[in-house]
Amino acid sequence: MARGQWKQWIEGWPVYRQFTDGDRTGRGAAAKSRVTGSLKARTSSADKVVKSICPYCAVGCGQNVFVKDGKVTHIEGDPDSPISRGRLCPKGSASLQLTTGSARQYQVLYRRPYGTEWETLDLDTAMDMIADRVLEARDEGWQSEVDGLVTNRTLGFASLGGATLDNEENYLLKKLYTALGAIQVENQARI
Questions:
Q1: Alpha helix ranges (H) inside 30-122
Q2: Which of 65, 114, 158, 190 is the most exposed place for a label (fewest CB within 10 A)?
Q3: How far is it, in rounded angstroms, from Cα 64 to Cα 88?
Q4: CB 63 within 8 A of CB 92
């Protein structure tokens, strides 16, 4: 190796830079190589950052969702969240798969009772089936009175809400189920 190459190699060596640049602990510029100096954060190309909440459990950890060209490109913990302070568990860290995963379904799948195969339904048909079943369960379990007291309720169905629904969503769901006569309304966040 020529003398100029040796000098260039020695000056590029992190230990040499640590002692000559005043970065004694080696945690600043001395630790950077030419490669790390040219790296960019994978989130730097995002068009916008949307604040969100992890959908997996009752904790409600904050997430920063990075969007480019209308598509989610990266999800990480929100350091501004007083709940999680930028941290996510393994499930929360993998929540990008909810939006971009290859296993994500974009159509309604239905398996008939005792059926062995899934079939594709259009959304209107599926919503009509759900509405019919809710009304049928409501009517079958309807109690106009119990022990001579007027109740006007149904035990035909119940609701267990998701843990990451906010207060407004929970309020609207409670109003819906109460209007339908349901009395068994609970939320996962309280369990």
A1: 34-38, 90-93, 96-100
A2: 114
A3: 11
A4: yes
Helices (H) then strands (E): counts for the chain: 7, 9
CA distance 56 to 134: 26
pLDDT score, position 190: 55
Which residue do the tokens 């393994």 mark?
Answer: 90
The answer to whether 95 and 56 are in contact (CB under 8 A) is yes
Give the residue with greater pLDDT, 132 vs 160. 132
Given a contact cutoff of 8 angstroms between Cβ atoms, the answer to whether 49 and 65 are in contact is: yes
Q: How far is CA 41 from CA 11, 38, 93, 109, in A?
A: 26, 10, 17, 38
142 in Cβ contact with 157 (< 8 Å): no
Close Cβ partners of 179 (under 8 Å, ≥ 6 residues apart): none
**Per residue in 64-121, pLDDT tens?**
999 989 888 889 999 999 988 999 988 888 888 888 888 888 889 999 999 999 999 9
The domains located in the chain, with CATH, are 3-38 (no CATH), 48-100 (2.20.25.90), 105-139 (no CATH), 141-191 (no CATH)
Rounded Cα–Cα distance for residues 62 and 78 (Å): 5
**DSSP 3-state of 53:** strand
Of the chain, the end-to-end C-alpha distance in Å amounts to 69
